[in-house]
C-alpha cells in the first residue's frame, strides 16, 4: 500500500514538474560569435583587458508575447559576477528602434553578424514586446577590466503569459593569442593606422576585430608624396608582402582593378571623404561578389583553425596559387589598393575559417617587432609605429 502511494506521489510530482516547465517562455538568447569572444590587452603588461561583445539577440519562440523589461550583461570570473551592465527600458526601446535598419544592414553585410547564425531569415527584429519569432538585437557592448574574465552572461528580465519571467545564457571569454607563431607581414618601419584598439573602426567588425591596416609614413607624417592623387605617390605602394607564417594557400584573387577615384581628393574634408567612401562601398556591395571588399588577396591555412588574410594587393601581383605550400617570410604579392580601400595599405587579419569575410577574428602577437615608445614587448595597438626585423 505504501509502495503504491509513493509511486503515485512521484508520478504527480513528475507531472507537476513538466507542467511548470511547459509554462516557462520559450525564449532563446544567441551570441555572435557563438563559441567564444576574444579579449584583447589594453596596456603594455597585458593586465588591463578590453572586451567587445559583437552582438546578442533575445528571440521569442513562444506563441505568448514576451516583453523585455530589463537586460543585464555580466562578466564572470571563476563563477563570480565581477562586472555588470544594465539595459533599462530607454535603452531597450532604443535597440528595438534600431532593429529594422540593422536587419537591412544584415542583408548587405551578413559577415558583420555571423551570417544567419545570430538572426535567421525567419526572425524579425523588434521589441520591447516580442511576438513569436521576433528578436531584440544588441550590438557592440564594450567592457574594460583588470585581470581575467572567463564568461559573458546575458539575463533578460521580462513578462510573458501573465507572469514575470527570467531567461539567461552565457558564452566563454577567450584570452591570449593565436596558436600560430606569426612574423610581421612586411619588413622595415610601418604605421599600423587601424588595429584592435577601440578608437579605430576594426574592432566593431567581426572578421577584422584584431586586423591591421598597415601604411608607411614619410618625413612630414603623411602617407604620400605630392598631392596623393596617384597610387605611386604613396610610400607603401608596391612593397613586398610576406607570408607571416608557414602554411598552405587556400584561396587567392589577383584580377581586381584599383580605382584611383576612391582616393581622398586634395582639400576634401575627412567627413566628406568618409561619406563618399561609404556610399561607394555600399554601391559595390549591392552589385559585386561578397569578396569584393578584400580586393586582390591571399588566404593561408596555418592549421589549428587559423587562417591569415593579406588583402588589397596590387592587380596581377599575387605570386602563389591555391594549394601552394609557403614559408614564413616568402613574398606572396605586392601591397596595393584594390577592393574596399581608402589608399594603398595592407589589410592583415587572422580568422577561424578559410573565408576572407565570413569568419571570426583572432588576436595575433608578432615575434619580430618592436614599437616606438614601448617599454617592452606587448600586443600591437592602433596607431603604433612598428619596426619589423
Major sheet size, sense and barrel closure: 10 strands, mixed
* Number of E-type strands: 21
The CATH topology of the largest domain corresponds to Glucose Permease (Domain IIA)
Shape: globular
Based on CA atoms alone, the radius of gyration comes out at 24 Å
Corresponding CATH superfamily of the largest domain: Glucose Permease (Domain IIA)
Helical content, roughly? 10-25%
What structural category arises from helix and sheet content?
alpha+beta
- Name of the CATH architecture of the largest domain: Distorted Sandwich
Number of separate helices: 3
Strand content: 35-45%
Low-confidence stretches: 1-22
Order of helix and strand elements from N to C terminus: HEEEEEHEEEEEEEEEHEEEEEEE
Number of domains: 2
Distance between the termini: 85 Å
CATH class of the largest domain: Mainly Beta
Q: What is the average per-residue confidence, as pLDDT, rounded to a whole number? A: 90
What does this structure look like?
The chain has 389 residues and is of the alpha+beta class. It folds into 2 domains: 23-174, Immunoglobulin-like (Sandwich); 188-388, Glucose Permease (Domain IIA) (Distorted Sandwich), CATH 2.70.70. Helix content is 15%, strand content 35%. The chain contains 3 helices and 21 strands. It has helices at 2-23, 89-108, 270-287, and strands spanning 27-32, 37-41, 48-60, 66-77, 80-87, 124-125, 129-130, 134-146, 151-160, 163-174, 188-194, 212-215, 240-242, 247-253, 296-301, 307-313, 325-326, 331-334, 346-351, 369-371, 384-388. The strands form 3 sheets. Strands 1, 2, 3, 4, 5, 6, 7, 8, 9 and 10 form a 10-stranded mixed β-sheet that branches. The chain has a 9-stranded antiparallel β-sheet with strand order 17-14-15-16-19-12-11-21-20, with no helix packed on it. It has a two-stranded antiparallel sheet with strand order 13-18. It is globular and about 70 Å long. The termini are far apart. The relative contact order is 0.15. Residues 1-22 have low confidence and may be disordered.
Amino acid at each position: 500500500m505504501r509502495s503504491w502511494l509513493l509511486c503515485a506521489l512521484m508520478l504527480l510530482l513528475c507531472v507537476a514538474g513538466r507542467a511548470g516547465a511547459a509554462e516557462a517562455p520559450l525564449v532563446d538568447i544567441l551570441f555572435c560569435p557563438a563559441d567564444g569572444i576574444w579579449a584583447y590587452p589594453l596596456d603594455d603588461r597585458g593586465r588591463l583587458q578590453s572586451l567587445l561583445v559583437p552582438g546578442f539577440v533575445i528571440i521569442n519562440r513562444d506563441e505568448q508575447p514576451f516583453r523585455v523589461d530589463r537586460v543585464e550583461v555580466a562578466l564572470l570570473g571563476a563563477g563570480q559576477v565581477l562586472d555588470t551592465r544594465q539595459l533599462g527600458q530607454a535603452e531597450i526601446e532604443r535597440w528595438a528602434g534600431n532593429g529594422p535598419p540593422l536587419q537591412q544592414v544584415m542583408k548587405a553585410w551578413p559577415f558583420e553578424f555571423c551570417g544567419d547564425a545570430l538572426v535567421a531569415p525567419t526572425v524579425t527584429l523588434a521589441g520591447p514586446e516580442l511576438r513569436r519569432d521576433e528578436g531584440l538585437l544588441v550590438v557592440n557592448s564594450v567592457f574594460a577590466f583588470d585581470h581575467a574574465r572567463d564568461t559573458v552572461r546575458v539575463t533578460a528580465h521580462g513578462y510573458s503569459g501573465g507572469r514575470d519571467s527570467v531567461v539567461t545564457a552565457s558564452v566563454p571569454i577567450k584570452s591570449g593569442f593565436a596558436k600560430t607563431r606569426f612574423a610581421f607581414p612586411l619588413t622595415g618601419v610601418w604605421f599600423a593606422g587601424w588595429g584592435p584598439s577601440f578608437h579605430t573602426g576594426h574592432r566593431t567588425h567581426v572578421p577584422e576585430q584584431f586586423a591591421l591596416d598597415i601604411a608607411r609614413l614619410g618625413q612630414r607624417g603623411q602617407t604620400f608624396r605630392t598631392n596623393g592623387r596617384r597610387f605611386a605617390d604613396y610610400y607603401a605602394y608596391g612593397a613586398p608582402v610576406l607570408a607571416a607564417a608557414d602554411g598552405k594557400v587556400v584561396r587567392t584573387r589577383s584580377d581586381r582593378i584599383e580605382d584611383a577615384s576612391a582616393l581622398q581628393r586634395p582639400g576634401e574634408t575627412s567627413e566628406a571623404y568618409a561619406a563618399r567612401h561609404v556610399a561607394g562601398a555600399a554601391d559595390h556591395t549591392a552589385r559585386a561578389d561578397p569578396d569584393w571588399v578584400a580586393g586582390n588577396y591571399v588566404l593561408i591555412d596555418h592549421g589549428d583553425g587559423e587562417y591569415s588574410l593579406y588583402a588589397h594587393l596590387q592587380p596581377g601581383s599575387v605570386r602563389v596559387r591555391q594549394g601552394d605550400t609557403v614559408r614564413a617570410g616568402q613574398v606572396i604579392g605586392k601591397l596595393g589598393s584594390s577592393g574596399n580601400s581608402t589608399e594603398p595599405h595592407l589589410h592583415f587579419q587572422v580568422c577561424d575559417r578559410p573565408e576572407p569575410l565570413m569568419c571570426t577574428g583572432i588576436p595575433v602577437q608578432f615575434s619580430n617587432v618592436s614599437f616606438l615608445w614601448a617599454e617592452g614587448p606587448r600586443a600591437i595597438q592602433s596607431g603604433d609605429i612598428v619596426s619589423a626585423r
